[in-house]
Amino acid sequence: MKITSTFTPLNGGTAEVLKRIDTGARWGLEAQGRVVWRAWKRELQLRKGGFKTGAFATGVAQNKITLGPVQTLGRIGDYSVQVGTSVLYHLFWELGHMNLFTGKYERVETLRPALEDTRDEQRAAFVRQFRRAVGA
Amino acid sequence: MAGETLTTQAVQDWLLTRLLTFPAPGGTSKAGDFLSTRVYWDRPPADAVYPFGVVRLIGMRNTGAYNRERQQGALELTLIVRPADADKVSDLNTAADLAQGAMMFARSGDSAPTTGGLIFVGEGTRDPLPAPQEPVDEQTYTIRIVWVVTIWPRYLSRYAHP
Asked: Which of A26, A76, B2, B36 can bridge B117 by disulfide, Cβ–Cβ 3.0-4.6 Å?
C-alpha cells in the first residue's frame, strides 16, 4: 500500500512557514476590520434622518468612519487593527449622554450592533485571508 | 438561594442592590450615599435628579459551553452629574470608587450553578467621558464603568436540572 501526503515542504522551510502565518494574521485582521468598518457604515446609513437631532446627520457621520492600518503590538506576531471615527460626537451617541438640544438622556448605538451582528462574517473574512496567505 | 436568578428582573435587583448598598470596609460609606436610589435600568426618567446613574446588561450570550446555561456579557454603569463643578465631580468620583469596590468581589450566594443559579462580577474598566462638546450638555460630567458579568440563571438551568 502506498501512502501519500499532500503536504509539500516549502522551499524556505520553517522560516517560510512562519512568514506566511505572519502574513495571514495581518491579512486576516485587515479583512476582519473591513467587515466591521462596512457594517458600521451600514448601521449609520439605516439612520439616514440623523441620530435624533438634525445637526448630527448620519450621512456626514458615515463618512467619518475610519479603518486604520494593521499595527504591530508589543510582542512579535501580535497585531491590531483599529476601526474608529474622526468625530467625537459618535462616542457620545454610542455611550449615551445628556443632550443639549433635547434636554434628555440620549443614546443611539451603531458600533456595538455592527460589531456583534457580524461576528461570523468577521471570522469568515479572517479565515479566508489567512488561508490565502498560507496557501491552504 | 436561587431567587436572585429566577428572572431577569431578579438578577437586575440583585446587581443594583449590591451596587448601591455594599459598604466600604472600615466604614459605612456606600455608593447609595451619593446616588440614593437614582440608578436606573437602561435610561433615566425625564425628570431625573442629578447625580444619577444608568445601568445596563449588555450583550449577554452563551457560547455553547456549560450546557448553554452560562450567560456572559457586560454590566455597564454610567454616572452623570450636573453642574460639573469641582465638588460635584469629586463626589461623583467617590460614588464611582464605592461602586467599583462593591462589585469587586460581587458573587451571589454559594449556590451550585446547576441547581441554584449564580451571578459573579469580574474585571472592569473605568473611564471619564471626554470633555463634552455638541450635542452633549457641556455642564455635565460623566463616568463610565464596565464589568464583565457572568450568570448561570436559574430561569435557564431549571430546564436542564428541574
From this structure: B2
Helices B8-21 and B86-104: crossing angle in degrees, nearest 10, is: 120
The answer to the question of residue A30 being in a domain is: yes
Look at B54 and A96 and tell me if their CB atoms are within 8 Å: yes
CATH, domain B3-160, list 3.40.50.620, 3.30.2000.20, 1.10.1740.10, 3.40.1390.30: 3.30.2000.20
Mean pLDDT for the stretch of residues B107-115? 65
Residue A79 belongs to domain spanning: 13-134
Find the residue in A nearest to B132 (Cα): A92
* Burial class of residue A54 (count of CB atoms within 10 Å of its CB; 0-12, 13-18, 19+): exposed
- Number of neighbours of residue B49 by Cβ within 10 angstroms: 10
How far A109 CA sits from the closest chain B CA (Å)? Answer: 12
* Domain count across chain A: 1
**Residues of B in Cβ contact (< 8 Å) with A119:** none
Between residues A127 and B158, which one has the greater pLDDT?
A127
- Domains of chain B, by residue range, sit at 3-160
Q: How far is CA B152 from the centre of its chain?
A: 17
Residue B113: pLDDT over 80: no
Q: Does the residue A62 lie in any domain?
A: yes
* Interface confidence (ipTM) of the complex: 0.89
**Residues of B at the A interface, defined by Cβ within 8 angstroms:** 43-44, 46, 48, 54, 58-59, 78, 80, 82, 129-130, 132-138, 140, 142, 144
Q: Nearest by CB to A105, which of B43, B129, B144? A: B43
Residue A29 grid coordinates? 485582521
Q: What is the mean pLDDT of chain A?
A: 85
